[in-house]
From TrEMBL:
Family annotation (Pfam families): Prim-Pol
Originating organism: Varibaculum cambriense
Region Disordered: start-end pairs: 1-21
Protein name: Bifunctional DNA primase/polymerase
InterPro entries linked to this entry: DNA_primase/pol_bifunc_N
Signal peptide (from-to): none
DNA primase/polymerase bifunctional N-terminal domain: residues covered: 29-209
Length: 313
């Protein structure tokens, strides 16, 4: 699949059955790949690999799984090797550049009704994955417009026009992945499924939704020299760092990763301009909220990579 293409629809074929392929999850992964999607194996239970949580990507140098969602592949031979190694692995479906997935999580207050209220209208009918948790959680697949010059898709919580986060509603875009049917939910053992048992070509998202999930181009900074650390008020710098740590420490469940990502981005900006930072303090604040070390380190690394400069170790 070329980067500017939308993957073809997925439909179960008559020849797909357990007689030709005894592992229905592998069979589905191969069908996704044949339709142009990139897939990767994800942990089917907590702690299966080095303390990682369920749904995190498997890691293996030997099997070319070293960069999370970036390791996703459409190579059928590699996919067969993955599911030979981990037969019960969940299917992670890498989100292509021109797709946006809206993740509704009722555990954190997310509902379709709340999202529709935020955009002031009904959502366009789209392919929907229903979570195997059985609580009404779902993933909505939409197509991003082909031409959004300079716009960057949001990744994380959906932010309303008034600046508040919409509880329990996240957006996943290129660089992320979603668990795909017929993977079995780690807690319930029930399968994820496509609503209506089919995946059709995603429609463009409603314009009102696009306003919430697309960042407009940033204004270009004026030419100037990099400010040295000596140019900052140390008291003001310390107060800023304290504020970042407090934001992370006070984050509610369901917002912790997003709060950490935001704080790490701000701290990386400080780092590049020579202002005060406290990476160890940020890490400890995040761990104290209940996030795992793997989640914390990966979120901080992603934030530092997003802003630029050197990355977290």
């Amino acid at each position: 699949m070329r980067l500017n293409e939308t993957p073809r629809p997925y439909r179960k074929q008559p020849g797909e059955n357990e007689l030709t392929n005894p592992n229905p999850i592998l069979s589905a992964a191969l069908r996704y790949a044949a339709c142009g999607w990139q897939v990767l194996p994800c942990l089917e239970q907590d702690g299966k690999q080095a303390g990682k949580p369920a749904k995190a990507p498997y890691y293996s140098r030997a099997l070319e799984l070293t960069h999370g969602a970036k390791s996703a592949s459409g190579n059928p031979e590699l996919i067969r090797q993955w599911w030979k190694e981990w037969p019960r692995a969940l299917i992670g479906l890498a989100v292509p550049p021109h797709i946006a997935v809206i993740d509704i999580d009722p555990r954190n207050g997310g509902t379709l009704e709340a999202l529709e209220a935020a955009i002031g209208g009904k959502l366009t009918r789209c392919p929907i994955v229903v979570s195997g948790r059985g609580d009404g959680g779902c993933h909505l697949y939409y197509q991003r417009p082909a031409r959004l010059e300079g716009f960057t898709p949001l990744f994380g919580q959906v932010i309303c026009d008034d600046g508040t986060a919409l509880p329990g509603v996240d957006v996943k875009t290129h660089g992320g992945f979603c668990v795909a049917p017929p993977s079995l939910h780690p807690e319930t053992g029930k399968p994820y499924r496509w609503e209506g048992n089919e995946f059709f070509t995603p429609p463009p998202y409603p314009q009102a939704l696009g306003k919430l999930i697309e960042r407009p181009p940033r204004p270009q900074p004026l030419p100037g020299k990099r400010v040295s650390r000596a140019g900052f008020n140390p008291i003001a710098g310390a107060n800023m760092v304290s504020g970042l740590l407090a934001t992370v420490a006070q984050a509610r469940q369901g917002t912790r990763n997003n709060a950490l990502f935001w704080a790490a981005c701000r701290m990386q900006q400080n780092d590049l301009t020579g202002a005060a930072t406290d990476w160890q303090g940020l890490r400890q604040a995040a761990l104290a909220t209940g996030l795992t070390a793997w989640e914390v380190d990966n979120t901080i690394h992603s934030a530092r990579r997003r802003i630029g400069g050197h990355h977290a170790a």
